[in-house]
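Incident log, support desk, overnight shift.

02:14 A customer reports that sequence design results differ from what the structure should imply. Their input is reproduced verbatim below. On-call engineer (initials T.W.) acknowledged and began investigating.
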């Protein structure tokens, strides 16, 4: 066996032993499995939550989409007080960044099945995680939407914009508990494209990534900004919806 082959075999053996000695524990069901860095087992990813868009409709929101927004898709339905809400809370507030990547992989697989997604032209797409304000990101240590986008990128093969391309320049109160019109007012003009990267979106089909969507005010405000900066169209992809 060549030296490179020996090294490769040693790496594989090491990974196998690590999985055997330190098996993963699914954060959803608690079962042990050889996780390989994942936080959710395949069984939970496949069947623990109610689909958010089983008919693969173009619009899952309760209102008409703005011009230029092609579709809005969610992976699962949000279960207030349930397991999915608990997992999203862990992702956002308990430093479970790999959980976001797990969500993103499942979301990417769902995206490939959506009729609004043109697989042949995926090179025109750009993933755009909804940015956090720097104060909030400093407290959390990372942006959960970027973790989700990383998982989507792995599965769907779509490039994600570099961190800092879209900035949240105004610190806003939480959208939770606000009515539709107040959500729009709260988030209006809260984002901007970095002045050195304003040509990135020219001619692209931007996919805005977020963890949860309610009225869509935040994601659609990001989409409005992207179209003002040259994007041909916008879609929204999110883990959960009401």
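02:41 Re-run completed on a clean worker. Output:
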């Amino acid at each position: 066996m060549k030296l490179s082959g020996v090294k490769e075999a040693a790496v594989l053996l090491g990974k196998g032993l690590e999985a055997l000695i330190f098996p993963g524990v699914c954060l959803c069901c608690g079962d042990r499995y050889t996780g390989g860095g994942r936080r959710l087992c395949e069984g939970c990813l496949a069947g623990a939550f109610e689909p958010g868009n089983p008919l693969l409709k173009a619009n899952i929101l309760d209102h008409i989409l703005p011009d230029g927004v092609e579709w809005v898709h969610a992976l699962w339905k949000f279960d207030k007080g349930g397991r999915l809400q608990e997992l999203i809370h862990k992702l956002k507030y308990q430093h479970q960044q790999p959980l976001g990547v797990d969500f993103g992989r499942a979301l990417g697989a769902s995206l490939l099945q959506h009729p609004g997604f043109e697989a042949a032209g995926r090179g025109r797409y750009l993933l755009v995680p909804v940015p956090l304000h720097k104060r909030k990101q400093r407290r959390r240590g990372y942006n959960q939407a970027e973790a989700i986008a990383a998982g989507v990128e792995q599965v769907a093969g779509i490039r994600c914009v570099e961190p800092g391309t879209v900035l949240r320049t105004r610190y806003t109160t939480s959208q939770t508990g606000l009515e539709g019109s107040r959500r729009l007012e709260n988030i209006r003009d809260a984002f901007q494209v970095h002045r050195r990267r304003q040509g990135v979106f020219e001619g692209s089909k931007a996919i805005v990534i977020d963890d949860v969507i309610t009225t869509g005010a935040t994601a659609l405000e990001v989409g409005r900004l992207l179209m003002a900066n040259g994007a041909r169209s916008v879609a929204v992809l999110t883990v959960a919806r009401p």
